[in-house]
Fold this sequence. Notes:
The protein is mainly alpha-helical and 133 residues long. It has helices at 7-36, 43-59, 65-75, 85-94, 101-132.
Amino acid sequence: xxxxxxxxxxxxxxxxxxxxxHAAFVVFVVLGxxxxxxxxxxxxxxxxxAVWGVFIEFRGWVxxxxxxxxxxxxxxxxxxxxxxxxxxxVLPLLYPEHLTPVDQIWLGSFAVIINILIYWHVARRxxxxxxxx
Length: 133
C-alpha cells in the first residue's frame, strides 16, 4: 500500500517546478538565439517567445505563470508574493531596488539588444556559408 499523497507538499513542489520553467523561459527569451545558431528551426519557437517576453516587460504586465505559481503556493500552505516573477526572483539578484516600470523597459531593451546581436551573427554566418557554396 502506498503512502497517502501529501497535497500541500505536492502543491509546493509544483509551484517550485513552475519557478524552474519560468526561469528557463526567461533565459530562453534572452539567450535562445544562441540555440538558433545551431538549430535553425528553433527560430519558429524562439522569436514568438522573445516577442512575448519583451512585450510583457514593455507593457508592465504580469506573466501568466506568476499567478499560477502563487495559486499553487497558497494551496500548499505558503504565502503568495506581490509583484512579478522578475521582481521577486531575478531583480533581487541584480539590483537592490524594487522593480519599476523603467527597470522593466531596461530589461526588455536588454533582451531585444541581445537577440538582435545574436540574430545578426547567425544571419552573417548563414550568409557567408551560402556564399562559400
